[in-house]
Amino acid sequence: MMLHEDEIPVDETLVRSLLKRQRPAWGDLPLSPAGAGTDNTMYRLGDDLLVRLPRTADNAQSVRKEQAWLPRLAPFLSCPVPELVHAGTPTDVFPLVWSVYRWIHGEEAGPDTIQDWDAFGTDLAAVVRELHSIDLMGATHAGDLSWYRGGSLEPCDQWISGCFDDCRTTVGSELDVDRLEQLWRAALTMPEPSGPHVWLHGDLKPTNLVARDGKLHAVIDFGGLSIGFPDAEHSTIWDLPPQARQAYWDTLNLDDVTWARARAWAIAVGVSGISYYWHTFPAFVDECRARLHAIVIDAAAR
After folding, report:
1. Disulfide-capable partner of 109 in 1, 142, 209, 295 (CB 3.0 to 4.6 Å)?
2. Phi and psi for 223 in degrees, rounded to 5?
3. Does the keyword Transferase apply (predicted)?
4. Is the distance from CB of 266 to CB of 236 less than 8 angstroms?
5. How far is CA 68 from CA 40, 71, 73, 137, 263, in A?
């Protein structure tokens, strides 16, 4: 499934050729698709490894970032994160960097894998607190670590306004786009964030949260790793049930202004996802639509 105009096609034959060239001992291990996101394609290798390949040259920048920083951040986090075992180099058949990680056993967080959503929200908040408290180690909001979600909302307004219009055309009456835009514009009038910059995962949605034994076990996909204000980090909480959302809020003791800005970031990612992936990635569009619907319901209850 091709999602981007500049995407580099990947299949099992290509992946096996990379392995045989760079890690011959792994070249004949069983290989099977292990999912694909908006930025990367994954293959399970044997029982204990995961091959992760970026879709585009821009995505490859995130791969380099993970390779550089995950080994340095992991010791400060109490939950497992991807463990790099091979940093793949570009070749003539795949001209981008790629990675092999240790396989993390578990399943995507969801209604069939989580037993106690209150506890899950509390545990996720604890992971976020740990990540945000790690020393920056000289890193700054610059270069590969300056993702837009770590900044302020206002620079995104023109882009997101166009996405609202796209959603009115595509989703139409299935979603209260007018209410979502009102919440977005209300957040734009609020004070700019002024606290210290912190480490940000950038995309703590359920597909990046691994459950085991009914609880949060691991956090994966650090492609959005960045330095910035923490508001957008909280945006994916609307992908979870209300009880997890409330427990998360209570644990971090978030104020109303931070919550409103986080909600605005959730809206921005949702409407832009629908706009960009409407024709190419229906499963992701459904995720965005569910998030936006949850925001409308939650806002009406507060």
Report:
1. 209
2. -65, -25
3. yes
4. yes
5. 17, 7, 10, 12, 31
Q: What is the third-level CATH fold of 12-102?
A: Phosphorylase Kinase; domain 1 (3.30.200)
pLDDT of 2 over the 80 cut: no
CATH topology of domain 110-301: Aminoglycoside 3'-phosphotransferase; Chain: A, domain 2 (3.90.1200)
pLDDT tier, 38 (very low <50, low <70, confident <90, very high otherwise): confident
Residue bearing tokens 């967080």: 109
φ, ψ of residue 209 to 5 degrees: the values are: -120, 120
Rg, C-alpha atoms of the chain: 19
CA dihedral 285, 241, 261, 167 (to 10 degrees): 20
Q: Which of 47, 33, 207 is nearest to 113 (CA)?
A: 207
257-267 as b/e: b if 16+ CB within 10 A: ebbbbbbbbbb
238 touches 298 (CB < 8 A): yes
Q: Find the angle CA(133)-CA(138)-CA(139) to the nearest 5 degrees.
A: 75
CB atoms < 10 A from the CB of 213, how many? 8
3-state secondary structure of 200: strand
Cβ atoms of 194 and 231 closer than 8 Å: no
Q: CB–CB of 97/54 below 8 Å?
A: yes
Alpha-carbon separation of residue 122 from 8, 47, 145, 237 (angstroms): 39, 31, 27, 11
Q: Are 225 and 199 in contact (CB under 8 A)?
A: yes
Strands 31-36 and 198-200: unpaired
| 53-71 confidence digits (pLDDT tens) | 999 988 899 999 999 999 9
pTM value? 0.94
